[in-house]
Amino acid sequence: MSPKTRSPEDRHEAILETAHRLFSERGVNGTLLEDVARTARVSKGSLYEVAEDKQDLFYQVCRRQFDSDLDNLERISAKISDPEKLLRRFIKLLLPPSREAPGAYAIIFELVSLSLRDPVFGTKVTDLHTEMRDRLRGLIVRVLREGVTRDQFHSDLDCETVAMVVHSWIDKCWVDWAMIPSMTRAHVLDQAKRFTHFLLTAIRVP
Question: Residue 153: beta bridge partners?
Fold first, then answer.
């Protein structure tokens, strides 16, 4: 489709999709707005209709990825009715992916790094992380409460605290993945298996 015949929504999506790919491959410093515009086949003016500058575009790309990941969990929630199976699925999907394709998760660490150097941008990123954290924990709480309703999990289960524990463990897993290059995907999956077994043993009705 010719760039001139695309709708504003299509141009917007093309810009974010292209920016995501270039930021993933080259990082923020290695990506120019001109590269994004040229690759997405849009004008520089169209680019500035989407983002104020490169930092804002990068923020939007990261937000889009967070939203996409959580939307995927929502879709899975609608397909899997068993709370225990759903909790296992959530944990597995939230683990770090293959090291062969680091870009998609490397940009998240880059977002944090940029936020530490820029207090104003840092406030914006903190608000984003809080929003996404609350949404993720809300999804986990919903699964846990369904398990309580079905008498699969203890009736006095503190769902909010358990959701916080699950989220905190996943965060630790990501930090370890970033800081320990020798950690393999098999190791991550084994840790997840052990954690999930421990968790379900603690909350499941005997």
Answer: 204
Tell me the sheet residues that pair with 204: 153
Could you give phi then psi for residue 28, rounded to 5 degrees?
A: -70, -50
Residue 2 pLDDT exceeds 50: no
- Please state, in angstroms and rounded to a whole number, the distance separating the CA atoms of residues 124 and 47: 21
Residue 80 tokens, joined: 């899997």
pLDDT in tens, 84-109: 999 999 999 999 887 766 677 788 88
CA distance 23 to 195: 33
Q: Cα angle vertex 93, ends 111, 60, to 5°?
A: 30
pLDDT of the residue at 156: 97
Please give the full DSSP string across 32-82, using - where no structure is assigned: -HHHHHHHHT--HHHHHHH-SSHHHHHHHHHHHHHHHHHHHHHHHHHH---
Q: What is the pTM of this model?
A: 0.89
User: How far is it, in rounded angstroms, from Cα 17 to Cα 61?
Assistant: 8
